[in-house]
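Q: Entry one of two.
A:
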Amino acid sequence: MAEKKSAKELFSDYVPEIMNYDPEIEKGKLNIAHGKALSEEERHRDDLIRLKAKEQAEKTTEGKNMEVLLNEYVPEIMHYDPKVDGGEEHMIRDELLSEKERLKDVITRLKEKNRGNRKVRR
């Protein structure tokens, strides 16, 4: 059977990813996969991909600033209306469930009071 190693032994050579920071990779001068400088053709291809992505983003926003578009955005959950999204039955069901939980807690407290410190099953 394999001997067990402590966590200290297992992680002795572990270096967090943040410690492997290379400013050349961040600037885009090095190819991350191969660790070598990008060729001129690869750099142009990457620039073309970035430009196409930027143009596509501008088309979807129709030239408007994205921050301005998102400024008026309200998530759908904020428009919740119980009368529209489930009706009054939805509210009644929630009230009944909360009442049921309250009664369970009352019964549990009474059982604990009668039995002392022993564990009580619901």
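Q: Entry two of two.
A:
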Amino acid sequence: MYTTIKDHKTFRTLSEGWSMERVTQLIDKDAEQVRPYVGEYTWAVFTSYQAVMLRIVFLLNLGRDDAAKLEWHKDGGTRQLIQAVLTAGELASRDVALCEQTRVKLLRRARGRSSSFRRTAAIRASTRCRAACT
């Protein structure tokens, strides 16, 4: 999905010069000052969100050399951080949404296929995808 972005000119330009030090500078140290005024749950959600975003930036930085890192949504560490905040139902609906996006892509591909064999194969894959999502 994202693996080809590492060679994109804009991505290369925007991600140039990033280091672990620069990524850690993204942490807003002033946010600590408001911690006493927010509840534990709110603080947990905020720090989890911050951790997810930093993890994604870190993976994108690594993705300059390793295209597999660009698929942050497949990363176990990112998923663990998200699971710490979302309920099982919210995670399931996210996964169903991703399945549905995949199914729609398969159907679009099927429409563009010239041979009936390829069109049928794409439609069957879409049907299997729908069954797996539910």
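A: Comment on entry two: The chain has a mean pLDDT of 74. The chain has two domains: 1-85, 87-134.
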